[in-house]
Amino acid sequence: MLQVFQRDASNTVWASSANI
User: Other C-beta atoms within 10 Å of 11: how many?
Assistant: First the structure.
């Protein structure tokens, strides 16, 4: 999932929440 976070840097907050 880290790859998705990097691609959507603007959605860092959402990515952090999804990082379980």
Answer: 13
